[in-house]
Amino acid sequence: MSLFDLTGKVCVVTGSTKGIGEAIVHRLAEHGAKVVVSSRKADACDKVAGDINAKHKDAAIAVPCNIADKADLQRLVDTTNAKWGKIDVLVCNAAVNPFFGSSRDIPDDAFDKIMSSNVKSNHWLSNMVLPQMIERKDGAIIIISSIGGLKGSPVLGAYCLSKAADFQLARNIAVENGPHNVRANCIAPGLIKTKFAQALWDNPEILERSTSGAPLKRIGMPDEIAGAAVFLASQAGAFMTGQSLVIDGGATIS
User: Residue 245 pairs with which residues in a beta bridge?
Assistant: First the structure.
């Protein structure tokens, strides 16, 4: 059996209609998984699921979901279970950042939104899928964090704080559920060319500052993160848990 074969696995990926999330659902399906495409907009979910099904017959369903709504998250889980009977892999990719600037100036509602969407929703969703993973003694949870969680930022302070919390969330899930063969890990991308990060790479000064000291001298592409998700979801990553896989072109080492 191929180490990266995901045949028979059911994978839920939040925020999967663009950027890193979209790349992940395509690559998971390519390796044999059934995938659930999810974001807030139904038409966007339908389009990505349709694109996947055009290449891999009956490999995807679209389930719109607002990650800030606990009942909506439960509906995402229930709909997946009703369709395919289980969830083997959960990828918490959806995140928000409604504020760009000094932490001294962030409004309380923006701070609360960041922490709720980027941390609490991942906590909620993980707890919704963990019981079935524990019962089967098999499962993988993958949280898309960021290298922002490894260092301070003059313009993304609250966002970086939320991503640091995601590292700890994965560690806690790994420690509590490892005896049941349930793994939890984070992927920590550097600057990736997505619409979400456009405020960074679209600014020549910030782009130069972000890439000039990195060994690879460039920003990454969404597909360069998707392969790591396939690794962590598959047998290839079966002995890895509680870890944070940094994929940043070397930015944090130089």
Answer: 187
pTM over the 0.85 mark: yes
DSSP code of 41?
-
The residue annotated as part of the active site, out of 99, 111, 124, 159, is 159
Which residue, 11, 35, 26, 29, is CA-closest to 88?
Answer: 11
Neighbours of 92 (CB within 10 A): 29
The arithmetic mean of pLDDT across residues 212-241, rounded, is 95
Give the distance, in angstroms, between the CA of residue 213 and the centroid of all CA atoms in the same chain.
Answer: 26
Catalytic-residue membership of 159: yes
CATH 3.40.50.720 is held by the domain 10-248:
yes
Q: Is the dihedral of CA 82, 83, 86, 89 positive or negative?
A: negative
CA distance 118 to 68: 9
Q: State phi, psi for 38 to the nearest 5 degrees.
A: -145, 135
What pLDDT digit, counting tens, does each position of 125-181 carry? Answer: 999 999 999 999 999 999 999 999 999 999 999 999 999 999 999 999 999 999 999
* Residue of 147, 139, 149 lying closest to 176 (CA atoms): 139
